[in-house]
Structure formats: structure tokens, C-alpha cells
Amino acid sequence: MTQARTSTAQLEEELAQIRRYEDFSTIDWVKDAIIERYRQSSIQTQNRNDTSWRAWRKLTYETTQTWIVVTLVGAAIGLNSALIAIVTDWLSDIKLGYCSEAWWLNQKFCCWEIEARDGSCENWIHWSQALHMGPDVFVVKWIFYVFWATLFATTCAYLVKVFAPYAAGSGISEIKCILAGFVMRGFLGSWTLMMKSVGLTMAVASNLSIGKEGPSVHMACCVGNVISRCFQKFRTSKAEMREILTASSAAGVAVAFGSPIGGVLFALEEMSSTFPNRTMWKSFFCAMIATMVLQAMNPFRTGKLVMFQVSYDREWHFFEYLFVVVIGIFGGLYGALVIKFNLIVAQLRKRYLKNYGVSEAAALAFFTALIAYPNVFMRIDMTEIMGILFRECEGAQGENYYGLCETNGVGRLVVLLLVATVLRTIGTIVTYGCRVPCGIFVPSMAIGATFGRMIGLLVKAWQVSNPDFFLFASCNPDMPCITPGTYAFLGAAAALCGVMRITVSVVVIMFELTGQITYILPTMIALMITRAVGDWFGADGIADRYIRLNGYPFLDKEDHVFGVPVSHVMQSEMTVMTATGMKFKEIDEILRNTNFQGFPVVQDNKSMAFIGYIGRSELRYLLDKARSVYKAHDTTGVRFSPDTNEDPEVLTSTSDVDHVIPGSSDFLDFGPYVDQTPITVHPKLYLETVMDMFKQLGPRVVLLEQGGKLVGLVTIKDVLRYMARIETSNTTDEAIDDMEQSDCMRSLMAWISRRSGRTGTYTQLNSQPEEEIHELHGR
Amino acid sequence: MTQARTSTAQLEEELAQIRRYEDFSTIDWVKDAIIERYRQSSIQTQNRNDTSWRAWRKLTYETTQTWIVVTLVGAAIGLNSALIAIVTDWLSDIKLGYCSEAWWLNQKFCCWEIEARDGSCENWIHWSQALHMGPDVFVVKWIFYVFWATLFATTCAYLVKVFAPYAAGSGISEIKCILAGFVMRGFLGSWTLMMKSVGLTMAVASNLSIGKEGPSVHMACCVGNVISRCFQKFRTSKAEMREILTASSAAGVAVAFGSPIGGVLFALEEMSSTFPNRTMWKSFFCAMIATMVLQAMNPFRTGKLVMFQVSYDREWHFFEYLFVVVIGIFGGLYGALVIKFNLIVAQLRKRYLKNYGVSEAAALAFFTALIAYPNVFMRIDMTEIMGILFRECEGAQGENYYGLCETNGVGRLVVLLLVATVLRTIGTIVTYGCRVPCGIFVPSMAIGATFGRMIGLLVKAWQVSNPDFFLFASCNPDMPCITPGTYAFLGAAAALCGVMRITVSVVVIMFELTGQITYILPTMIALMITRAVGDWFGADGIADRYIRLNGYPFLDKEDHVFGVPVSHVMQSEMTVMTATGMKFKEIDEILRNTNFQGFPVVQDNKSMAFIGYIGRSELRYLLDKARSVYKAHDTTGVRFSPDTNEDPEVLTSTSDVDHVIPGSSDFLDFGPYVDQTPITVHPKLYLETVMDMFKQLGPRVVLLEQGGKLVGLVTIKDVLRYMARIETSNTTDEAIDDMEQSDCMRSLMAWISRRSGRTGTYTQLNSQPEEEIHELHGR
């Protein structure tokens, strides 16, 4: 039995070598789980009766290895995040001036403890000063600001384009697919990590409407992948690797927001398809280590984990729920708007700007900087402005926060904030998805915060001017009644929820971000409304929409109702292997001419009596082996009949063949390699149940068998194809909500097509994958 | 199509009426999901084209209903919890004396703001005072203490026995099973809720070694069940009901510890088998509402959600990790010890004390009180003592906390704490599981806290006496180096983790409990060690062990490696229905003589060609209907051949029969009611994969089909039976760790049997279900 296990393991290792080169395929989690279980049990069996020091060490190493890796990954993520924060800060300030003492210091450190009374500092030279034009020449500052921003964005886009195209964008959509079992070679590689880290500092510093949170998740997963693949265990087991990647994504959010529990919940709510307890514990640990390393590095010298320390100590009035509803509705509308138009922009970008990524980024940075500079709420860093918008004015110790706390001039402030909200929304729509590393978390939150603060200021002004209005009866006349900062806080949460469609993690992230739990009920109510409004326009967040846009094989977590049997969706025209009568050449040609990931095996083409399933990689391996070892030639016969004896102790039917294909140069028996137990279902089973199987169990393919006869097969791609068909056809009741959107989008696309003299419908565009993302292979 | 759906829905409703009386059966989640999807889609279809106000209201109500229920449930849980806290407090104090001003006040409120300088208060009359024997006669106080404790426990056990036997015990194990799909009628009923609430106040006040956290979860689920079953939606859909119950369990923990996020994570980690995002969001909301209501009720007049406000402001020294390891090991050993011996006690209780629940509780309370009173750390309420043990001495403003802060007399303190640790451990072992409402959370935490504080005191004493020892080099000589309170904190976390085997939720609960996140790393390390030590003795927590003890059909979340095909486990002797040739009487007799929950349908007994599956309730329904409507008699022929036409638009094959069984009094066609698409697998499929199917998809039965032929069937019970067999047999490598335990237990049981003149082995005992929990029906 041990022997059998060992040989199975060896075979699996050889096969793993081949499988590693299957790009754009999906992982069969059912098989992976079996392989991994036997790997573990064989280690235990091997070492159980061996009481030597080495065996003990091996067993201990086996158990502690994962924790060592998680710790290393967490620490590396924290470190990387701290370095990026420092560099980004410096680059951001470079846009304004430089430090005369030491060019590598940013404004804060340059002026550390030597700041003059009026807030200026001698060591920090503004660019207009550097040109000896005086310290405050607006136009010169503006020009320099625009120049540096454009330079950063261009460099960044160029680096990304040349060294690691995968480093562009947010990465969250792709990681969701990878965690669900999609293989994208290089997406989590070291080059991507490096370019994304370098590029992100510049992209953020260029003041584009992008955030670093999405990329932070991507970088964290790169770190997780790069470190863990140094260990044999994680190279072999896809499930173990998935755990590390899930933990890394939690750590990515944790360092981005200083929010370890929020990170874990984000991984649970948004990223992972499966989340068993051991993954949760690893995610928690990884997020914790990463946050602690970041805190120890202390890149901002605040010594705090909480990014925006606020202390709202006033109570919430009942009438304010009215405005909570307004903010909630705003969040939902904002999300729907951004998702809709950003996707149109993404399609246009795919179509017309595919080869102009660098120029596009340059142009975007140029215009963003040009427009942003005059408005203070757009000029400074988004994270900083958020912190300011969340603050209360009372107890601000004379600080004015860019005029936010002035009691008169509310009108001007409101206009500034409204302009900032609108312009930044447009900026986010056109920028998110361009060929630089970019996230949508922080821009959304910043937009929500400006809007929320604006509402807060308006309500406050209203209350101050009409204190006797019936709504404000509950206000204490001796105290400020409205705290606009809390409205900004709610707005940020609502906008983030609107665009990502995550709820619990947003609540926890907001609390960990601000160290504040007084306003938990208003926050939850705002998010419920946001969610309801958003769902009215379509249930998917932007990450899921990008997945569909790119045609990745991913089933979202939502429940769908189709009301059709799975046979509606199946491929009934299959390339099958027959148990007997096939020749070497025939199989070789099938492999060369198709790109299916596997083939059902049947008794013969006529009866279609179902025997099993054989994977493409196994077949490839066997053919190569047969050719080299057995000198198989084109006419060698191949048999696929598996051993039918039911020896209960034999673990896998390959166990006793030990790398030898039975047969001679005239005859090959591939039978032992046929998987006799793929997941099979009745063709009348509901499609929804099969989708649950794909989501929960994760097989690569589900075979349809009726009365022992193979009827068809279904993959995730087939299900997705069916869903897309439903959505674009008008006949099904269930898809009406989605329809409205795609209708509108289709007509817009049609209009654009007519304009540009091309023909093409939305549907075609939609199913056309990105150039770099080569056509998904087969099933 | 609409018509078809409606009739299906009506039929389902009728069937639901029958199914409701299936006690001790398991829910088929696969079917439930299908039914629920069609219910939802039919509501949408019905109302989509109807633009009237009523249709809009109906749709809106349908969507908001769940939230209304969640809010109501949360509020009721908070309210119930507050009431229990108030009554428990009062009853606890009654043991010591009464309020002369108003008998219904507890000591704290009786003495509210009128406390004298020395801490005494005139209004509060100690029992020895009441007898005019002076205020401080130790023996009299002791006697009264014992008297009241015994009285409370006896009353409680009596009430539980008479009115709601299900109210005894913790309830967590059962709720885990219910959430996984096990039906236990009355377990979550209003009588259970009432008796558990009333009983719990007395049980806790009686100073037994029990906590109120487990029962709090049970009561919360009762509240959830009682409220939600007033709504049609939750009566019909088991999945919706499960969501409400999961949310309720989260709220139960949330109110017990004042820890909303911890509650959600507890529900995720310990309670639920499936935890989709919408459940998480509902749990979060429910927990939040419950906590807020509790806080608004403010039963302790502290105005704080945080139960034990502590502020550890000193840093953690590296050498202290050594003691973290000690505490972690203690947690693991404590857990293993309690689980092991408590289970033995539980078996003895089942065997010998089944009818003596009241006397047992009385005796336990009597001895516990007798022993506990002289030791201050055992006399006062466990929650209170925990809060005291967590505290720092510095900044205690002269408070002495029962001598804990005295600098000399450490020896006496250590002895007291050690005695408290040991005695309370014994108390917990013998008490947990007795026939009163009882939880194991708080006793475990209290034990951990006394042990931790003891270690802390020892380390402190060592450091103070040997400040130059190399270990203490990092201590600042001008400041206290060791904070014993933090050791107590760690000990509580470790002991809780050791006994329940939950990790992330413990971390979060501890932080929400104390409002303290400084010591996150030591806590996590302690828990990792606890977990590792505990796993060495067996991976399951006490809740899972009780599930196995009681023989509930529940697969735990752990991965198992068996390495056998599912055919090893299957029942190959099945009672099947044949497509043709069966008579009415025959079927009626099968139903009467067996208690299987359903029957496979095959072409004939010889070929066993697989056709489908029919449930017991459907069959029962059809037979009754046939008898009453069609006047079927004993010799009426019954056919089970389903319609094989594959009309794609027909949703279920029952859609066009509309409550009419085709046929006459001589011939009945049950074909349309046969489920043609039960989950089937190949008999060679690995058992582990089938277990995954049970866990993830939740079918009631998995049928084994090979080449169109029915080979056998598997239920969760079969899998559990196989697991039990492996564990008690000596042949399998994998079960060695578990073996050691059961070996030991078996020999102990054998010894006891010999003593008592009975025969019987552990295995028999183990598979013997509790009397009240009738034998599980069938498969």
C-alpha cells in the first residue's frame, strides 16, 4: 500500500511538471483534493513507524512549513507595503518641490520638527522658488505639478508595458479567478510584483484617480506566490497554494487600510470561493503579521495603525437618518454609474487604445493634473484628503483644514466639493482600467467623502440658519448639532460599497480605519440602502463585471434561476476516446487538432456506453512516453479499458503500474490512466444544481450520463456561454434587469460602431477576449 | 409555465405540511434549494407584469421581510439577554443577603450611591444579619449560600425536566446539527426558550461550574425560530430558516460577550456548515441589533459594551513568550482533559443517572457551593472574577481586588488560585452536560484566567526577587516588568480555545470583551500552541464530541483520509421500488415496516436499471391521496415510470399533474413524482469526495450507479458508521491518535461495567443514543 502510494506520488509529480505549463486552463479541485490527501497520508504513513530524529523532523517540518511560509509572506507583504508608502510619499511631494538638505526626503521629513510658526519650512524648496520666481507663483507651481504627474504616469505605463503587462490594472478580478482555479501563468510572478510595486508608486504619485488598494492585493498575492513556490508542498498542491493566496489577499487589504480583521473579511466576502476554517486562521495570521511589520516600519511616523484617527463623540440624531438614506442612495447610484460607464470605457479602450497604453496614461495624467491643481480637494493625495474630510472641526485646535472649518463661505466650499465629486467621478470612470497599476477603492472612498462632507455642510448650514425647523427639534441648542465629518465617513463607506458590492468588510474596514465604532448603525443602514439601490441596476460589483468582460471562466457567488435542465447547456458533440480500436496516430492528431482539456472515454461511438475520462496532460504524457519508451508508431493500437476489478485496498488504479505502460510497440494499454470516477450527473438535473457543484466541489468538467450512456459534458465555460446568451436574448424573464443595462450599452456600442465606420455588436465585443489574454483553451 | 410553477408550488406546500412532521430526519438541501429558487422566481414572474400598487407592495414585502425578521429577532435576543442578566444578578446576590428597602433589588442597586466609606451599605442585609447573629458570621453565611445554591439548582432541574427536557445542556452541538440539516422538532420551540431562560438564571445563580454562553446561543436560536416561523417564507424554505438561525447564533454569542464581530466569526467558524455572503451580512446585522438593544437596556448600568474594560499599556517583553508557550500548552492540556473526562462523565450520566437529573443537579450544586464558598476566587460569579483577574494592579486606585494586588503573601494567593483552577476544572468536568442549562465557555475562561494569573504572579515574584537573572535583562528597572493580568487574559483565551477548538473567533471575542488589541501577537501564539497541543489529543472540540456521542448525523468540517472507494460504505441491501408490477398493498406495507426516508426506483429487481428516487413523504402522500380520491385498494397496481420526454420548458415533471394522480382505481401512476435526478456517483469514487458532496451540496442520500445499474446508496449515517468502525478497529493507521483515547475510555468503561456487574463495551455505549433523542430513523 505504501509502495503504491509512493509510486502514485511520483507519477503525480511527473504529471504536475507537465500540468504546470497548462496556461489558461482550470484546476480540477476534486482531483487536486484527492492527490493532496494522499500526499499527506503517505507522509504520515512513511514516518509513523520511523522513530528516528529525521522522521520526527520531517513530520514537524511538514506541519510547521505552512506557518513558516505564512509568516514569511506576511512579513514580506508588510515590508513591501511600507516601502511603497515611503516612496509614494516622496514622489507625491516631488511634484510640489524638493528638500534642499537631502533630496531623498519628502516634505514632512524634510521639515521634521523645524517647521516655522506659519507652517512653511525653509528646507523645502517649491519649484517656483527653485527658479527664483518667488515662493508662490501659482502658474509655475501648476506647470511643474502637471509636468511631474505626466512624467510619472508615462514612465509607469512604459515600464508596465515593456516588463510586465500583467501589472496593469487592479488585479482583483484576475485573482478572484485564480483563487477559483483559473491558471494564468506569470500573473503572480516576480516580474509582475516588481513592476507593480515600482509602477504603483509612480501611478499614485501622478495624482491619477486611482488607489493603491486593489494593486496592494495583487502585489500581496504575488509575494505569496513567489515565496511559497520555493516550497515543494505548495508547488504540488494547488489547494495549499490557494490557501496561501487567500491569506495573502487578506494581508494585502490589511496593509492597505491598516485593517487586519477587515482584510480577512474582505478575503472571505469578495475574494475566495471557498473559505474553510483553516484558511480563515491562516488569513488572519498573515494579515496580522503584515500589519505588525508595517506598524513596526512605521512609514508615516505616526506610530498608529489607525490611518485616520477620529473621535466622534457626539450622538447621532434620529432625523439624520434621512440624510443617511440620501448618502446610501448616492452610493448606489455612484456605483451603478461608475460600473456602467467604466465598462464602456474599458471596451473602447480594448478596441481602439490597445496599443496606445503609454500615450493614454500620459494624456490622462496630464489632463487630470491640469484640472485637479486649482481645486485643493483634488490637488492633494486622496488618502490625505479623506482623513481631512472625516475630521470634526471642533477640537481641531485652530487648524482650518483647507477652509473646511470656516463658518462662513459655506457656499464656496460646497461648490468646491461638488466639483471635486463630479470631476473625480469622471476621472475614475476614464482612468480605472488604464494600463498602469490602479485600484478603485480609494478614489471611490474619496468621492464618497467629498459628497458626504458636502451634504453634511449643507445640513449644518440649514440647521444653523433654521434651528427652529421641526426636523431639528432634537438638537441641543448649546452644542453643534451636525458633524459633517461623519457624513463624509458614511459617504466613503457607501461609495466603496456601491462600486465593489461588499458590505460587512466595508463596515469593519471603516471602523478599523478610523478606530471608531459609534456610528455603526447609520453605517449599516447606509450600506443596506446602497446595496439595495445598486442591486436594482445589477447585482455584480465592478470586479465581477470585469471578469465577465474578459471572459474568464468564473461563476459568481450569486444564485441564479434559469429553470432549465443541464442538458440545455451541454456540449453534445464531443471528441471521445473509444475503449478499443484507436490508433496511436489518431489520438496524436486529436491532441494536435483540438485544445480540449480532456476526453470522455466510451465503449464505442455507437453505444456511447460511458467508461471514464482522460485528461489532456495525461494523454500527452502517455503518448510521449509510449513513443520514447515503447517505440510506438502510428499504427500502434491503443486501448482505454480500465481494470474493472474492485480491489478495495488499491488506492488508485495507477498504483501498480509504476510508470510503465503495459503493452508493447504494437499495443498500448492506457486503461489504468482513465479516471473512472469523474463527476457525472443526469441530463435532467437542474442547471443550478450543477452550478452549485462547480462552485462547491470545483470539478473541471461534469459529464452527463443517462442509463449508463454518455450524453454530453458541461464545463464552466458552457454555463457562462448560456448565461451570456440568456442575457442578450430577450426571451427570458429572469434577465430583464441585466438586459436593460446591456440593451443600453449595446445601442451605445452600435452607435459608436456606426460612427467609426465599423460594424459589430456588443455581444461580439463582449465575447472577444483581451489580446494578451489568449483565447481560453477549449472546455 | 406560470401555471406549472404555481401548481408545483401548491404541491410543494402540501408536501411541506407532511414533511414538517418528520422528526429526526435530515433535510435534502439540494431539493430545498431547487424549491426555494422556484418559489422566488414564481413570485417575480407573477408580479413582473403587474404594475399595480398591490404587486409592488408584495414584491417589496418579499424583499424586506427578511430584514424585518432579522431586526425583530436581533431586538428580541438583546432584550431576552438583558432580562436574564438582571435576574441572574439579583438571584446571585440573594445567596448572600437581601435588600431591606426593596427586595427585588440586587446588592449593587440596593446600595446605589449610598455606599458607606468602608464598602458596606446599610440597606443590604446579609443573611447572618437577618438572623440577628451579627453581620459577619462565616458559618451562617456559608450555610445560606449552600442552601440557596441548592434550591436554585433543584428548581431549575425540576422545571427543565417537567416542561422542556431539551432546555438542558448547552445546545451548541444540537444547533450545529440543525444548521447542517437535522430536524429536531421542539428543540427550538417556545417552551424550550422559556424554560431555558428561566432555568439559566437559576443555574448560573446557583454557582455551578457552568456559563451562560452556550445556552445564550440556544436561546437566541429559539428566538429566531419562534419569530421567523410566524412568516410564511421561513416556514416553507429550510434554507431561509437556516440563515435566520445562523444569524441568531451569531447574535447569541454577541450578547453573551458584548462582541458583535466575534459572534459573526463564531457562527462562521463553529456553527455553520455553509456561510455565504448574504448569511454573513444578516448575521452581522442581527448581532449588531442585539448588542445595541442590550447596550440600550444597559442591565449593569455601566453604559459600556465592553464587559471587562482593561488598559494594558505596558509593552510585552520577548522573554515572556516563554510563558505564553506555557499558557498555550496549559490550554491544550486543559481542553483535552476536560473533553476526555467530561465525555466519560456524560456516558456514565446517560447510563446511571438518566432518571435522576434533579437529584444530580441538587447534589452538584450542594457540593460545589460547599467547596466554593471558602475560596473567594470560586465564591463570586465567574464573570466577575474574570474581570478582576484581567486587571492590572497599578492604577487600581487603592482597590485590592480580593488581595490580588498585595505584594506580599504571593504564596497564599498562588495556592488559592491553583486550588481554584483544579477544583473548578473538576467541577466543570462533572457539571457540564447535567440536566440544567449550562455552557462551558465561561467556566473554561475562568479556569484559564485563574491559571494564567497564577503563572503571572509566579513570574512576577521571580522577576522581583531575581531582577538580574539573564531572562529579565530587558526589563526596565524603574517600572513593573510583568503584568499578571495579561497572563490571565491569555489563559482565558487558551482555555476557551482548548475546549472549543475555535481560534479566530476567540481572538476577536477576547478583544471585543476587553477593548484591548495590544497583545494580539501573544494571544495568537498562545492559541496556535493550544490548538497544536489539543490536536495531538484529537482534533474535535467538545461540541463535536457530543455530536458523536449522541449519534447525530453530522459530518464535521475536518478533512479525513480514508483511502477507500465509497462502495466500502454503501448499503447494498436496499428496499427498492420497481417501475412496474408493484401493488398498493405491497408499498403500504413497505412504508409501514421500514423507516427509510426514501426509496430508489429501478426497472426491476433483477437488472436494477436505475430510474430514480422517491421520498417517503411523497409516497405517503400519494398513497393517502390514492386511497381517498381514487378509492385505491390493496391490489391496485402502481407504476413508477417517469415521463421520459425531455420537454425543456417543463420545470418539474409534476407540473402538469396538478394534484391529480393519473390512473384509476385499478391503476396508479406515481411516475411523475419520481425524482429522476438524485445525486448519483460511481461506486469507485473516493469516499472523501462523497463526503465533500454531503458537506457542500447537502443531499439526503447519494445513490451509487455503475453503467446505468443501481449498486447501492450512501447516507451520512453510513459514513459516520464507517468512521466509528475505523476508529474502534485497530487496523487503520490514520485513527491512531483517536484510538488512544477511545482505547483508554473503553478500558475504563469496561472496568466500570465489571464493577457494576453489567456487560457492555464502549462501542455499544457509544452508538446508543440518548433516551429522549429517539433512535434516528433509517438511513
UniProtKB/TrEMBL annotation, chains A, B:
Q: Name one GO molecular function term.
A: voltage-gated chloride channel activity
Q: Which UniProt keywords apply?
A: CBS domain, Chloride, Ion transport, Membrane, Transmembrane, Transmembrane helix, Transport
Q: Which residues cross the membrane?
A: 67-87, 142-163, 175-194, 244-268, 280-298, 318-343, 355-373, 413-433, 440-462, 487-511
* Ranges where the CBS domain occurs: 674-729
Q: Which Pfam families match?
A: CBS (PF00571), Voltage_CLC (PF00654)
Q: Which GO terms describe its cellular component?
A: early endosome; endoplasmic reticulum; fungal-type vacuole; Golgi apparatus; plasma membrane
Q: How does it sit in the membrane?
A: Multi-pass membrane protein
Q: Which InterPro entries match?
A: CBS_dom, CBS_dom_sf, Cl-channel_core, ClC
Subcellular localization is given as:
Membrane
Entry's PROSITE patterns?
CBS
Q: Name one GO biological process term.
A: intracellular copper ion homeostasis
Top-rank taxon of the source lineage equals: Eukaryota
Q: Which family does it belong to?
A: Belongs to the chloride channel (TC 2.A.49) family.
Name the PANTHER family on file: ANION_PROTON EXCHANGE TRANSPORTER GEF1 (PTHR45711:SF9), CHLORIDE CHANNEL PROTEIN (PTHR45711)
Q: What is this protein called?
A: Chloride channel protein
Q: Report the source organism.
A: Phycomyces blakesleeanus (strain ATCC 8743b / DSM 1359 / FGSC 10004 / NBRC 33097 / NRRL 1555)
- List the top taxonomic levels of the source: Eukaryota, Fungi, Fungi incertae sedis, Mucoromycota, Mucoromycotina
